[in-house]
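Blinded run. Sample ID left blank on purpose so nobody reads anything into the name before looking at the predicted structure. Input follows.
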Amino acid sequence: MTSSRASSHVARPIEQLVSEIAELHSQFDATAAESEEIGDAPPVLVDLMRQIRVPMIKAPLEAGGDRLLLADQCRYFTALSYSNATAAWTGFNHAGAAAAAGSRLSDEGIELLFGSDPSPFLAAVAAPSGTFTKVDGGVLMNGTWNYASGVRHADWAMLTAIEASDQPSVTLAVIRTAEATVHGEWNVMALKGTGSVSITAKDVFVPTALTVDPMEPPKRGGAIFGLNYPVFVAGENL
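Blinded prediction complete.
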């Protein structure tokens, strides 16, 4: 959603968002056992999350989001956790990534990511466990990123990488999961449904429009998006 279309977007208040979850509680709850069995959010659960636009609750208005402040973010994910732990855990990863992308990508990047899907599902890994190399028109991403919660049902992943050079910089790159390898088993005692497996990129090209310099200030959304990413997502991780 570009600024020319953002004027018609109205953010949902927290009361409405919590009410939407409550109205679908029985449907969310009904998918809990299957999520634990398959180690991912089953399609019906992903559809429910898409229906109430979970990935967009943190994103700036200009990207079509609800721009919840920190206290309301905690209230939202408390309600979602009660209905479905998988939706809540993967949801705050999707929401944090969409917020970071929505506030920091260029206008061209906003169109690429949000233009055809008003509620894209992004996995995200903040640890810079991969590298990137600058090439004409973008970067090549290489590496493996662990604990990418929700990546099995995500169309995109926002990954942190360090430049492979003598004077390295850091970038956040949004890649299509179909162009990478999602692998690994998630053998844990609880939260099996989060599917927090690894994703590997091998010479995956990412256009400049889908990369972000995390040291630069946000382009839209306001002061809240200037918070350090770990601080921005700290509330629901407590």
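Unblinding after everyone has recorded impressions. The radius of gyration is 17 Å.
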